[in-house]
Amino acid sequence: MYRVSDTVRSTHSLDGAILLDIRQGQMFNVNFVGSRIFELLKNRSTESEITAQISCEFGVDRELAESDVRQFLQALKKCQLVEEWEAGVAA
C-alpha cells in the first residue's frame, strides 16, 4: 500500500491538482485523473480500490485503469510524494 508523504500539500480544481512537497521545495502539476487518484490515496484507499474507482468513474477498462494507476503511483513514489506502508502499522 501507499500513503501520501507528510511533507506533501495539495490543492485541487476542476483542471487537476498542484502538489507541493515542502521538504524538497518542488511543485508538481497533475491532471484531473491524477488529482482523483491522489485524493483516493489521501483517504488511504488501496491500489485495487483506486483502480476500481477510476475504472468506474471514468468508464475505462479495468486493465487499462490498473496499468495507469500503477504507473502513476510509481511516478509519485519516484518523486517521493508517496511512500509504501503496511495497513495496520502505525505511520
Question: What is the topological layout?
Answer:
Layout: E1 2-4, E2 8-13, E3 16-21, E4 26-30, H1 32-42, H2 47-58, H3 62-78, E5 82-84
| Cα-based radius of gyration, to the nearest Å | 13 Å
Q: Work out the number of β strands.
A: 5
In spatial order, strands of the major sheet run 2-3-4
Kindly report the average pLDDT value.
93
Poorly predicted runs are none
- Shape annotation: globular
Separation of the first and last Cα atoms: 12 Å
Strand/helix succession = EEEEHHHE
Please tell me the CATH architecture by its name.
Orthogonal Bundle
Number of domains: 1
Helical fraction equals 40-55%
CATH T-level topology: Arc Repressor Mutant, subunit A
Which structural class matches the secondary elements? alpha+beta
Supply the key terms.
Arc Repressor Mutant, subunit A; globular; 3 helices; three-stranded antiparallel sheet; 91 residues; alpha+beta
Describe this structure in words.
The protein has 3 helices and 5 strands, in the order ββββαααβ. It has 91 residues and is an alpha+beta fold. It has one domain: Arc Repressor Mutant, subunit A. It has a 3-stranded antiparallel beta sheet, with helices on one face. A two-stranded antiparallel ribbon has the order 1-5. α1 runs antiparallel to α2 and α2 crosses α3. It is globular. The two termini are 12 Å apart.
Question: Could you write a compact summary of the structure shown?
Answer:
With 91 residues, the chain is α+β, with helices and mostly antiparallel strands. It has helices at residues 32-42, 47-58, 62-78; strands at residues 2-4, 8-13, 16-21, 26-30, 82-84. It has one domain (2-80): Arc Repressor Mutant, subunit A, CATH 1.10.10.
